Amino acid sequence: MKKIRIEFKWAVIFTLVALLWMLLEKLSGLHGKYIDYHMYLTNLFAIPAIIVMVMALRDKKNTYYGGVMSYTQGLISGIVLSAFIALLSPLAQWITTYVITPEYFPNVIKRSVELGFYKSIEEAQAYFNYKNYAIQGAIWSLIMGIVTTAIAMIFIRSKKSAENK
Question: What InterPro entries does the record point to (predicted)?
């Protein structure tokens, strides 16, 4: 457990940041009055998500590897971190769906039918629901976490890697 303590800590931090983002979206009206802008503005979450991932990888480099971390070591750390985030994702989605913003799905279902994205309420309900979002969230957390790590480690890795010592 000591080997992956940092990844678990940062997965919890990432999840809390994601929940805070959902709360900010709700408070700003993106789950209600301004729902038409939600599909565009929600993508801005990539900014804090990348920042948290980079902070986690730097923490691993400095705390666990003593400031010298290879690309491979960082990639493994990022994959573990992404897996923890993916595992926590359904819980975060449950909190979002049933605690933070229970009106989101009814609002987005109604509006997506009004705009013609879906032909019927039933069709929209098949997409906009907790189960679908929990599955998508877990999959995308894993994929985007690994992609972010692969790119970030180009810059975070030590020039003289631990593998070359």
Answer: DUF4199
In the numeric block, which tokens belong to residue 102?
A: 């229970």
Domain count across the chain: 1
For residues 94 and 21, the answer to whether their CB atoms sit within 8 Å is no
pLDDT, tens digit, 9 for 90 and up, residues 100-144: 999 999 999 999 999 999 999 999 999 999 999 999 999 999 999
Exposed (0-12), middle (13-18) or buried (19+): which is 160, by Cβ within 10 Å? Answer: exposed
Contact between residue 7 and residue 80 where contact means Cβ atoms under 8 Å apart: yes
Would residue 165 count as lying in a domain? no
pTM above 0.85, yes or no: yes
**In the 8-state DSSP scheme, what is residue 70?**
-
Q: Which domain holds residue 154?
A: 2-159
- The verdict on residue 164 lying in a domain is no
